[in-house]
Amino acid sequence: MAVRLSELGTGQRGRVVSVDARVEVGQRILEMGVTPGVTVQMIAAAPMGDPIAYEVRGYRLSLRRAEAALVEVERLLNHDRRGRADHDTRPTATHHAAPPGAVRSGEDEVEGERRRDRA
């Protein structure tokens, strides 16, 4: 299903299907390397939502929302380091309760007793 580039959320990727080059801005977008078949990832949006930063061909490109709406993309599934798609609902980590007497972050324990740093 094709959507506008401006509709991608942070971290989402899309493959460019078409660019409306009937307007000068659309031609400029094509000249910047946003051409059909290229993968684009939405990196971040400014606090007020405009402009939006994208990664294209290994560089960052900022476009106004109206300019990004000139680009039609098909959404691609994002994969994590384990190769799972973003729609996969399996947990990414298993939570285990710490055994009794375990050292917590920021604490040292020696033979069941806390050690205090003395300066």
- Total beta-strand segments: 8
Strand order of the largest sheet: 1-6-2-3-4-5
CATH C-level category of the domain at 2-76: Mainly Beta
User: Radius of gyration from the CA trace?
Assistant: 23 Å
**CATH topology tier name of the domain at 2-76:** SH3 type barrels
Instruction: Please state the second-level CATH architecture of the domain at 2-76.
Output: Roll
Mean pLDDT reading: 77
Find the structural class using helix and strand composition: mainly beta
Report the span from N to C terminus: 64 Å
Write the layout of secondary structure elements.
Elements: E1 2-4, E2 13-19, H1 24-31, E3 39-45, E4 52-56, E5 59-63, H2 65-68, E6 71-76, E7 109-110, E8 113-114
Antiparallel strand pairs: 1-6, 2-3, 2-6, 3-4, 4-5, 7-8
Task: Please give a structural write-up.
- With 119 residues, the chain is mostly beta strands.
- The protein has a domain at 2-76: SH3 type barrels, CATH 2.30.30.
- Helices cover 10% and strands 31% of the residues.
- It contains 2 helices and 8 strands, in the order ββαβββαβββ.
- The protein has helices spanning 24-31, 65-68; strands at residues 2-4, 13-19, 39-45, 52-56, 59-63, 71-76, 109-110, 113-114.
- The chain has a 6-stranded antiparallel sheet. The chain has a two-stranded antiparallel sheet with strand order 7-8.
- Strand 7 (109-110) and strand 8 form a beta hairpin.
- The longest helix has 8 residues, at 24-31.
- The N and C termini lie far apart (64 Å).
Task: Please give a handful of descriptors for the protein shown.
31% strand; 6-stranded antiparallel β-sheet; SH3 type barrels; 119 residues; disordered C terminus; globular; 2 helices; mainly beta
